[in-house]
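User: These chains co-purify. Model them together.
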Amino acid sequence: AQTVTQSQPEMSVQEAETVTLSCTYDTSESNYYLFWYKQPPSRQMILVIRQEAYKQQNATENRFSVNFQKAAKSFSLKISDSQLGDTAMYFCANFGNEKLTFGTGTRLTIIP
Amino acid sequence: GAVVSQHPSWVICKSGTSVKIECRSLDFQATTMFWYRQFPKQSLMLMATSNEGSKATYEQGVEKDKFLINHASLTLSTLTVTSAHPEDSSFYICSADPSRGGETQYFGPGTRLLVL
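Assistant: Joint model of the two components:
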């Protein structure tokens, strides 16, 4: 069975600061994918970043980057130069065995 | 590109009635669609995987007779909540994958169901 753990229920950071959201996972699959999704108040799920487990290089998307530590089964998200629009729930997710498993989420608030 | 729509976005119904929710991939074909449920302030839980032209695969604990899924075409999947009860009130989200494998899911905007 797959599990995804997000140990930070809530975080807040000043605008323009950098923030890191933590995620650990467990899976028996050898081939899997990891994701960070953002869910703003509208509740539309938005893909932030994606990482293939077989790739050693950490994925980056503009201000968003991950620190993928495969041996430790850790997949943290770093948001640089945080903006007010980054305020949302962030879910870490693992795709393996043909299904997507989500963590419990971290509510991130960017303070003006 | 890769837009998924859901209809309706909001539905209120009386206990005992059935409600149908549609999920459409607007600009791509999706062999596989997924249905999730999200309770307030909680995470998304996979309910079932819907494959075009075949029966849906339900997750453990999800009643297949209560949550009927039909994937009639490569762009449409429907979820029917039969004989809805207040405990079925929730936010239902679908996703669609153009790649067949499920690792590239695009999410719909969700449907909020309130059963009175």
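The first strand of chain B starts at residue 4 and ends at 7.
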